[in-house]
């Protein structure tokens, strides 16, 4: 069932021709997104190293300034 929508199921791609400034901004956003992905992978790797070194998740969360559930989610483990 679901909520009916007033939009067609398939829509044509938006026609957009960016200006030079917009092209630069789009390229900058793309580079920033790539940097975020690299940083997140490094963060998860370091979290895994910390847990392998028997650092308690509660102490790790306090040191980082985040909640324990965020660390467990980053590690892909259920909360204990």
Note the overall shape: flat
Counting DSSP E segments of at least 2 residues, the number of strands comes to 0
CA radius of gyration is: 21 Å
What is the CA–CA distance across the termini? Answer: 37 Å
Beta-strand percent range: under 5%
> Which structural class is indicated by helix and strand composition?
mainly alpha
Low-pLDDT sequence parts:
none
- Overall pLDDT: 89
Q: Please give the largest β-sheet.
A: none
Series of H and E elements? HHH
Helix content: 55-70%
Enumerate how many helices there are, as a single number.
Answer: 3
Question: What is this structure, in a nutshell?
Answer:
With 80 residues, the chain is an all-alpha fold. The chain has three helices and no strands.
What this model shows, in words?
The protein is mainly α. It has a domain at 21-75. 61% of the residues lie in helices and 0% in strands. The chain has 3 helices and no strands. α2 packs across α3 (68-75). The mean pLDDT is 89.
């Amino acid at each position: 069932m679901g909520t009916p929508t007033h939009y067609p199921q398939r829509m044509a791609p938006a026609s957009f021709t960016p200006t030079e400034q917009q092209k630069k901004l789009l390229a900058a956003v793309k580079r920033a997104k790539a940097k975020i992905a690299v940083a997140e992978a490094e963060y998860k790797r370091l979290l895994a190293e910390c847990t392998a070194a028997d650092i308690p998740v509660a102490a790790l969360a306090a040191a980082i300034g985040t909640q324990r559930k965020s660390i467990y989610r980053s590690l892909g483990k259920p909360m204990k």
